[in-house]
Amino acid sequence: MSQKYANQTVPKLPTETTETIWSLKRRLLSVIDSATAAEFVLFDRFGETSETIIAMDELKSVAEQAGDRFSQLSNLQRRIAEAQPTVPTDMMELVNEVIARTLGNVPALERSVQEIKIEWSLP
User: Fold this and answer.
1) Residues linked to residue 88 through DSSP beta bridges, in sequence order
2) Are 73 and 98 a contacting pair, CB within 8 Å?
3) Which DSSP letter does residue 22 get?
């Protein structure tokens, strides 16, 4: 391998990073599931009113945001698997940035769903 490329790549993802990604993806799927289930129950119990539409739109938005993050992490995982023989440094930096943003974002998404469930007394 030429010296030019030797300084621009890193080994495959560390186990800890891989586990963090899988953990985040599980949490994001849980957010999607909770948000869509709450949206269904809200509509089933209260129908479509001006108040429920606001809450259902927020739940739909939360599920979409979680889905977008899930897709982003999945795409990065695939790109890393396809990167041979090592992961480019800029890709590793992107992975770390996405992980940090997602770690900061997931609790807010989870709280949004919980707040709506509490407000509407949903299971």
Assistant:
1) 9
2) yes
3) H
Contacts of 78 (CB under 8 A, 6+ apart): none
pLDDT value of residue 13: 86
Nearby residues of 87 by Cβ (< 8 Å), 6 or more positions away:
9, 10, 11, 12, 13, 80
**What are the tens digits of pLDDT across the range 92-102?**
999 999 999 99
**Distance separating alpha carbons of residues 91 and 13, to the nearest angstrom:** 10
What's the average model confidence in pLDDT over 82-105? 93
Beta strands in the chain (DSSP E): 9-10, 87-88
Structure tokens at 115: 């707040």
